[in-house]
Each structure stands twice: as C-alpha cells, then as structure tokens.
Amino acid sequence: MKNLLLSLLGAIVTWFVISFFTHDLEFNYLAPLIIGIVIGYGIGKRDNAPTH
Q: For residues 20 and 26, is the Cβ–Cβ distance under 8 A?
C-alpha cells in the first residue's frame, strides 16, 4: 500500500511541476494516469498473491 501511495504522490508532484513550468494546469491527463496506476497496482497485487 505504501508503494501505491508513493507512486500516486509522485504522479501528482510531477504533474504539478510540469504544469507550473508550462502554465497549463490541465487535469485531462492526470485522472487517467491515477486510474491506471491504481488498476495496475491491483492487477500486480493479484498476480503476486500466493496460491495454495
């Protein structure tokens, strides 16, 4: 869970820094990126689950 939060924080900080320098605070690319990170984390978590 810590890795998920760090990756989300990294995406938001990177988006903010790039948006600050380009003067373009658009959310058009941030929302799909966050959704992709969460879905990818869920799939990775499920694939690495131990099986009995």
A: no
48 pLDDT above the threshold of 70: no
Spell out the alpha helix ranges (H) of 1-52: 2-22, 30-47
∠52-38-22 over CA atoms, to 5°?
155
Residues in the chain: 52
pTM: 0.69
How far is Cα 17 from Cα 25, in angstroms, rounded to an integer? Answer: 10
Check if the beta carbon of residue 41 is closer than 8 Å to that of residue 18.
no
Question: Residue for token digits 């989300």?
Answer: 8
